[in-house]
Amino acid sequence: MHTDDGETDEKRDFFRIRDQMALQVKPIDGPELNKETQDDESPLFSLLSDLHMLDYESQHLLRQIAERDRALAHYLKIINKRVDLVGKALAMQLTGDLSEPQEVTLSEGGMAFSSPQAYALDSWLMLRMVLMPSLLGLVLPARVIRCEAEQDTGQWQLGVSFDNLSDAQRQLLARHILQKQAQEIRAAKTTEGMPT
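Now predict its structure.
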């Protein structure tokens, strides 16, 4: 969408949340993420991301199995929980390799965050992120749509767009956003119910 003065506005089609995440940003040549580069940079992070993607992709199969064999489905859910625990341990180790958790604004369509470095508009970045508290690890391509100097901090406020996500990546982001929103609603209700 264009404003009268010719500036491009960011898309507002998605629900946005304020969130915390450990984040690593690296410039890349284009929207395609090279699997070998990802693995060279951080093989453990690629493993964590793959674990989450496989979990998402297997959910419909687990539901089908549950319709036919409850005992087998229960056993597979226990195995899945064990793999989740390994993934969480891996994520906690990896958050130490990334930045300290930082405040971001996140949606399915993009993200805004502070960066010590400026990037050119329409350039591409590889974002390695661990979303808190779910410890969801994702590696996503993002296109820079805004880069503005912050007053008095020496930082840059970046806005990036997730133009090239797979359906699974978008669904994982959506699920995290919905869980975070539900958590905030529960916390607000609890606070309202407490005597002052």
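The two ends are 46 Å apart (CA to CA).
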